[in-house]
Amino acid sequence: DANVIIFARIREELGKGKSVKEAINTGYKKATSAILDGNITTLIAAGVLGVLGSGAIKGFAATLALGIILSMFTAMVVTRLLMKAFYAIGLQNVKLYGVAKEKKPVNFTSKKAIFFGISIAAIVAGFVFMGINGANGSGVLNYSLEFVGGTSTNVTFNEDMALADIDAQVVPLIEEITGDGNVQTQKIEGTSEVIFKTRTLTTQERETFKNVMVEQFAADADKITTETISSTVSSEMKTDAILAVIVAAVCMLLYIWFRFKDIRFGASSVIALIHDVLVVLAFYAIVRVSVGTTFIACMLTIVGYSINATIVIFDRIRENMSNMGKKESLEGMVNVSITQTLSRSIFTSFTTFIMVAALYAFGVSSVKEFALPLMAGILCGTYSSICITGALWLVLRKVFPQKSAA
Helices 293-324 and 365-383, interaxial angle, to 10°? Predict the structure, then answer.
């Protein structure tokens, strides 16, 4: 993402008629604030999650923080050295770098009523489906065994099967019986015994499970045993996760307020994050994707992705406010800012979406159940950053006027 921001800036500078050397230097200089603000807000979230979270959340926070620091270093230092090296060895033709053409501003803010209506409809639809699911007795969301417990089945096969063969041959049959893609496998080292953990099975499903193992894989019927297992995610862990996300959102709000000198920027960002979380939650409810430990990681990934996209647009608004002064209306300035950053938003979303789509296409069931809502989150985060946040900031300026920010 940082590289995309930098390269888009370089192309803009070349479009203004600057030399390649000037464009590279100016591009990095102008992109720095957006990169730092976007990544620092995510680092703040990672820090809070690391302190207040528990178990897998701490691991996610540590990995997230390390990834952010490394990506910033490679974009701001390594890539910059490579760009200068390419220029030094003679790659100085403007055509090699691309020139951004002046774009006619797209009037996004004039459609804010439509965008707000679509978002509200999506969120309401999610709550309606949750109510319907709860009334049907199938659960508000499709909670996995980590949240609600399930059934553990021990199967002793007639031969020692590799874990890859089990995932490819046995697990799909179990998923067909349970209608759930969240099947966990554990192989007992040095034996042909395998433990399968699934949602809670009925007596009929347990019998079907047993028959399939015996008929398809010649498993020993007498050695197939089942037991009920409790959830591994406690209510305390759920509370810790919710508290960590709330504190992280407040800290991000305060940081954005401090950096942009306008709390309405921070409020718009946080409202957009809540919007993205609720829309993806609606997706979970409607599509009935299994809600397991990957649910928390998925939501946190979407939050980090969305806040980065929003910061890039707000950074451009801040820059244009000082450059344009009173020459253009606020609505026009916001539309110009969104249009100027549109290529970055599209490029980043497209490349990220392709990667996650590949995970969905080629991954196993547990990976698919992480990738599918993540794809929905990427689309939602892009939509909210482009269509919601700028218009929301304008609305907040009118509702809560502030002389110092005018």
Answer: 20
Give the three-class secondary structure for 180.
coil
**202: helix, coil or strand?**
coil
Edge to edge, the sheet with strand 193-198 lists 184-187, 193-198, 150-156, 225-229
Spatial CB neighbours of 4, under 8 Å, sequence gap ≥ 6: 344, 347, 348, 351
Burial group, residue 54, by CB count within 10 angstroms (0-12, 13-18, 19+) = middle
404 pLDDT band (50/70/90 cuts)?
very low
Whether the CB-CB separation of 220 and 156 falls below 8 Å is answered with yes
Q: Compute how many other C-beta atoms are within 10 angstroms of the C-beta atom of residue 223.
A: 12
Confidence of residue 232 (pLDDT cuts 50, 70, 90): low
List C-alpha distances in Å: 120 to 126, 275, 368: 10, 9, 27
H helices of 325-341, in order, are 330-340
Q: Is the pLDDT of residue 243 over 60?
A: yes
Q: pTM score, two decimals? A: 0.80
- Virtual torsion, Cα 252, 324, 105, 35, nearest 10 deg: -30
Q: Are strands 150-156 and 225-229 parallel, antiparallel or unpaired?
A: antiparallel
151 pairs with which residues across the strands?
A: 198, 228
What sign does the CA torsion over 164, 171, 359, 238 have? negative
DSSP for 74-112 reads IIIIIHHHHHHHHHHTT---GGGT--PPP-PPP--GGGH
For residues 219-236, average pLDDT: 80
CA dihedral 223, 228, 232, 238 (to 10 degrees): 160
Q: What is the pLDDT of residue 405?
A: 41
Residues 325-342 pLDDT 10s: 666 688 999 999 999 888
- Three-class SS state of 289: coil
Mean pLDDT value of segment 56-74 = 87
CA distance 252 to 182: 34
Reported as half-sphere exposure (CB side, CA atoms, 13 A), residue 383 has a value of 19
Tokens standing for residue 239: 């509370």
pLDDT at 149: 81
